[in-house]
């Protein structure tokens, strides 16, 4: 069992970003921010709109999710291997995405089926609603525990080329004894994401709406507000992704890093 050092991982992350930000930030823009911006124009504005969402809109949302996975895994691979070409990192990430997606489905689908009946009871109201809400909270606690123990699945998927089940087992093994530190790491970045995204979008988004009017899908106002939001999220997501790779490097016992510098 390796005792994780968040401070060491953050120091390595800062060094990698300082030297190879010219590679990592464009990857984030191309595979995370821009697809997210496009997909955001298809997000239903209300539950009623969600029921009427077309298959094409759902396909766009799914494609943006897959592209985000490719971007994240590419950034993680460059954070783990010095001298790797960006094109090779993208190719390796694309090959890892199906295995990672399958692993995530193995965990998320059972949880979704488990919570669905309680959600139906809770939304219907009545005397059983309170018990259903407690059951949902309990399931969410379990889901959060699983999220932390499986947090290293993404760097494992791109670094070790394991199958979906073996990938989950490997992450479970690597995170043993470091659950509380990983809770802290995850909560810190989630809080930072909410604060940065909320502050930037709240201030700049309000100005954009004041100048360009209320956002409608594909209007200038909607695109600008969406772009601001995506850039704010990217400012947190890229350091988080690199740091996750460096935490994996610690637990996996890989060699001390040199900063990737491939064109």
Question: Which structural traits does this protein have?
Answer:
single chain; 263 residues; mainly alpha; globular; disordered C terminus; Glycerophosphoryl diester phosphodiesterase membrane domain-containing protein; transmembrane; transmembrane helix; membrane; GlyceroP-diester-Pdiesterase_M
Brief overview:
It contains nine helices and no strands.
Describe this structure in words.
The chain has helices spanning 6-40, 47-51, 55-80, 86-124, 129-149, 153-160, 164-174, 179-212, 220-252. It has 263 residues and is mostly helical. It has one domain (6-252). This is Glycerophosphoryl diester phosphodiesterase membrane domain-containing protein.
Outline the fold blueprint.
Elements: H1 6-40, H2 47-51, H3 55-80, H4 86-124, H5 129-149, H6 153-160, H7 164-174, H8 179-212, H9 220-252
Q: How far is it from the N-terminal to the C-terminal residue, by CA?
A: 36 Å
Mean of residue pLDDT values: 88
Range of helix content: over 70%
Beta-strand share of residues: under 5%
What characteristic shape results from the CA principal axes?
globular
Biggest sheet architecture: none
- Oligomeric state, counting identical vs distinct chains: single chain
How many strands in all? 0
Keywords: Membrane, Transmembrane, Transmembrane helix
InterPro entries: GlyceroP-diester-Pdiesterase_M
Domain Glycerophosphoryl diester phosphodiesterase membrane: 132-253
Protein name: Glycerophosphoryl diester phosphodiesterase membrane domain-containing protein
């Amino acid at each position: 069992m390796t005792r994780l050092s968040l401070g060491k991982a953050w120091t390595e992350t800062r060094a990698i970003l300082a030297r190879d930000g010219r590679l990592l930030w464009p990857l984030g823009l191309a595979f995370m921010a821009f697809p997210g911006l496009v997909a955001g124009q298809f997000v239903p504005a209300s539950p009623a709109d969600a029921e009427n969402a077309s298959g094409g809109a759902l396909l766009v949302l799914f494609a943006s999710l897959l592209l985000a996975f490719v971007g994240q895994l590419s950034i993680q691979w460059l954070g783990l291997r010095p001298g790797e070409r960006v094109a090779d990192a993208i190719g390796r990430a694309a090959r890892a995405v199906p295995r990672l997606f399958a692993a995530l489905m193995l965990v998320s689908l059972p949880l979704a089926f488990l919570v669905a009946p309680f959600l139906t009871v809770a939304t219907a109201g009545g005397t059983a609603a309170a018990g259903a809400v407690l059951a949902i909270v309990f399931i969410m606690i379990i889901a959060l525990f699983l999220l932390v123990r499986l947090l290293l699945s993404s760097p494992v998927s791109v670094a070790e080329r394991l199958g979906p089940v073996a990938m989950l087992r490997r992450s479970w093994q690597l995170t043993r004894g470091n659950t509380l530190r990983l809770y802290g790491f995850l909560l810190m970045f989630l809080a930072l994401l909410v604060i940065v995204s909320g502050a930037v979008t709240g201030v700049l988004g309000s100005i954009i709406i004041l100048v360009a009017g209320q956002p409608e899908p594909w209007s200038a106002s909607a695109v600008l507000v969406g772009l601001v939001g995506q850039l704010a999220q990217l400012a947190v997501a890229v350091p988080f992704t690199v740091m996750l790779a460096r935490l994996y490097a610690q637990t996996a016992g890989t060699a001390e890093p040199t900063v990737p510098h491939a064109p």
